[in-house]
């Protein structure tokens, strides 16, 4: 789609989309010719793509200063309903199986979720990243999808594995992740292995609630590695964003 004069500034993308999705919902149930509805859908998808890029640009700037976009005063506020309305749009796109539009809209939602990550639970961001990866996978961009799945695996691995030097593969790791986080990890693992044909190493993990010795295992983690981990966390929230932002360039 050729870019032209939109008639409104970039800081109005959000408002225009929220109005546009309401109109699309109404048109989708109307007797409008399919060709006209398709043209409107293309325009709205293009707006979503531009909106995600604009919010990402603002988030990049604030995260260089160590804060999320939502924490920066007087910069730009993301509407609380934006993510749910984006998901509603994606779900409508899925009804027509428009893989290209789904991929673009899913990428935009992931961009926005990462930019306001402090307002979301970790598994909510993970769900958007999975949807983003799946969108690329279904659009035939399997290499890019594999890279996204791989980064999800890195971020949603249990902390004891992240802290480990992995020099002793037989060691059992304490898994303190939530059920939602484990589900996201396993989904990404399955999709990564399917796309790449690579079987990832089997790691022994135990949930604290199922093993009385789990806490003792925590104490065996090398203190030096813990210190390194703490040093890395001092750079948050930049780390989480940096893991994924290159996929949006």
Q: Can you walk through the features of this model?
A:
By secondary structure, the chain is mainly alpha-helical. It has eleven helices and two strands. A two-stranded parallel sheet has the order 1-2. Helix 4 runs antiparallel to helix 5 and helix 6 (142-155) packs antiparallel against helix 8. The model is unreliable at 221-225 (pLDDT under 50).
| Mean of pLDDT | 84
Spatial ordering of strands, largest sheet: 1-2
User: How many DSSP-defined strands?
Assistant: 2
Structural class designation: mainly alpha
Could you give the order of the helices and strands?
Answer: HHHHHHHEHEHHH
As a percent range, the share of strand residues is under 5%
Shape: globular
Number of helices: 11
Structural Rg: 21 Å
Describe this protein with a few key phrases.
11 helices, 2 strands, 2% strand, single chain, mainly alpha
Short structural summary:
Helices cover 63% and strands 2% of the residues. It is mainly α.
Topology:
Layout: H1 13-28, H2 34-63, H3 82-96, H4 99-115, H5 122-138, H6 142-155, H7 159-163, E1 172-174, H8 179-196, E2 204-206, H9 214-219, H10 223-233, H11 238-244
Parallel strand pairs: 1-2
Helix pairs in contact: 1-2, 1-3, 2-4, 3-4, 4-5, 5-6, 5-8, 6-8
